[in-house]
Specification:
235 residues; mainly alpha; two-stranded antiparallel sheet; 7 helices; 4 strands; globular
Amino acid sequence: MIPMKTVNIQEYANRVIEWNLLAHKEHDCSDGNIKNQLALVVEEYKELVDALNNKDAIGVVDGVCDLFVTAVYCEFLVNYEDMYSEKDYDLSWYGNTELKYDLGDTLRATSLAMAILVGDETLPAQDGGEVKTIGFIEDILIGCIDLMYILDVDINGAMEEVLDSNDSKMPLYDALDIPIYHIECESISEKEGIDVEWFRTEDRVIFRNAETGKVRKPMSFTAPELKQFIPNAYI
């Protein structure tokens, strides 16, 4: 019998939501933004599949963590106005309130989520300007969380490492560093070929694509080191 283990998915979901609010100043639940977020989910899924096909253990762990980050925020946006605007985000719908999971139905649930992704519904259809998720993002999120339990790695350590890495994209604000922020924007713009702007939010500085709003990586960014959370036998 496979033992149960605990993954702190509620804690990680809360960090993802708080990070996005800090980065974007508000939760944009428009159809266009939800579709953009769904595209990020599909992008992360494809990278996860590539890592699985290449037997890249570090890439698989990184892919699962990144898929959770994008999927949980997409699910939040989809249901924000109906479910979460007046109360805290709650992942207990996942299956049990203690956030522990018995692996009995894991493969079925995971297969369902992956089947949806590789089918014709990689992005929801539009009808009258409204995005129709048809249960899409919930299935993806369930499949992703299932994989977090399946993997024989320290997924809690890996998830915290990825979230800490995301936090490093937002350096602490210092008025004396304002000239550096402008230089940073110019540097990122030249490197990526996009227009980059910076702004202060609370005590943090955000660098983002001026057109899409996507947060960019400044000099303060530190990439996650995930090898330490994976048994040597898999590397």
